[in-house]
């Protein structure tokens, strides 16, 4: 069964605006971690932000923030003040306990000038 | 974070041949992970490679098709054997490291090996 769901194959955003990339997950574990990665057109994968299941505050990292709604099992990525360099594939991922990292299908973000 | 060198970066291969991908890490790591990313798809874990033991393969991946070596704590190879066009993918090596900002163990990836099988 699919554990990580990203329902937006593609998203467009105007430069300097904010955008939200959706991610929902499914787990019965109490301890898990949620991650977002960015993959550029060259294939390079970069870690962006992390949210632990026990973290009460939403994670933030520069222009990235994670809107964590535990009861709804969602972990949406918010990118503020979009830049042209933000155009890329974005993957949501989850690790249950000390298990393997599992990735969602990804969302392709295009930032328009 | 660890720096991973992966090669080849890309290759075009003939059906029926085999290709070995190398992954070198600049620090010693316990586990190394091999992922496959088929065109337009997400990342799928092929196997986890521990030094000194057999690799652990995920469902749908077998050692005969994807033999892995892990001779030391900084190096691993993945071979794609008897290739067919369906093996055309990006293959990524990754290791785990501690992110000082979040305190989490996250994956860092090599640049990937883009294989095209004709």
The count of strands of chain B amounts to 11
Counting helices, strands and paired strands, the structural category of chain A is mainly beta
Low-confidence stretches of chain B: none
How helix-rich are the residues of chain B, as a percent range?
under 10%
Using the CA coordinates, give the radius of gyration of chain B. 14 Å
Shape of chain B: globular
Please report which band the strand proportion of chain A falls in: under 5%, 5-15%, 15-25%, 25-35%, 35-45% or over 45%: over 45%
Number of helices of chain A: 0
Topology:
The complex is a heterodimer of chains A (113) and B (118).
Chain A: E1 4-5, E2 10-14, E3 19-21, E4 24-25, E5 32-39, E6 45-52, E7 60-61, E8 64-69, E9 74-79, E10 88-96, E11 101-103, E12 107-112
Parallel strand pairs in A: 2-12
Antiparallel strand pairs in A: 1-4, 3-9, 5-6, 5-10, 7-8, 8-9, 10-11, 10-12
Chain B: E1 4-7, E2 10-13, E3 19-25, E4 31-37, E5 43-50, E6 56-57, E7 68-72, E8 75-80, E9 89-98, E10 105-109, E11 113-117
